[in-house]
Amino acid sequence: QVQLVESGGGLVQAGGSLRLSCAASGRTFSSGAMGWFRQAPGKEREFVAGINWNGNVKYYADSVKGRFTISRENAKNTVYLQMNSLKPDDTAVYYCAAQTLLRARTATLANEYDYWGQGTQVTVSS
Question: Per-residue pLDDT tens for 30-49?
Answer without folding.
Answer: 889 999 999 999 999 999 99
